[in-house]
Amino acid sequence: QVQLVESGGGLVQPGGSLRLACAASRSIVNNYAAWYRQAPGKQRELVANIFDGESTYYADSAKGRFTISRDNNKNTVYLQMNSLKPEDTAAYYCNVHVDVGGANYSYWGQGTQVTVSS
């Protein structure tokens, strides 16, 4: 079992920055980790992920503006978001995959709200 706690969301003006954090209750070194977001009335979508250590993937909407990273000493995954736009407004969720006894489990955080508005 892994508990994930997200933080760092809030209200920011267009062009501003936020850093989201996802703290895990156990080591997630080299585990697949991702950030998703879900805007009202829309499906949850992948924003970025990190896997195989430090390989990363970004959705087109995040490329050049967002950076996913991890601090293995703190069991934490981050999403640095710069040049935020109103269309980035959504609840952001952390997702981590953990292998237990040969089976792969997917865990989600409770979400943190990001609102981009002037």
Q: What labels describe this entry?
A:
mainly beta; 7-stranded mixed beta sheet; 55% strand; globular
The number of helices is 0
Report the principal-axis shape.
Answer: globular
Name the structural class: mainly beta
Tell me about the largest β-sheet.
Answer: 7 strands, mixed
Determine the mean pLDDT: 95
Q: If you compute it from the alpha carbons, what radius of gyration comes out, rounded to the nearest whole angstrom?
A: 14 Å
* Total E-strand runs: 11
Helix content: under 10%
**What's the end-to-end separation, in Å?**
40 Å
List unreliable stretches of 5+ residues.
Answer: none
Question: Could you spell the SSE succession in H and E letters?
Answer: EEEEEEEEEEE
Q: Provide the β-strand percentage band.
A: over 45%
Q: How would you explain this protein's 3D organization?
A:
With 118 residues, the chain is mainly beta. The chain has strands at 4-7, 10-12, 18-24, 33-38, 45-51, 55-58, 66-71, 76-81, 90-100, 103-108, 112-116. Strands 2, 4, 5, 6, 9, 10 and 11 form a seven-stranded mixed β-sheet that branches. It is globular and about 50 Å long. The mean pLDDT is 95.
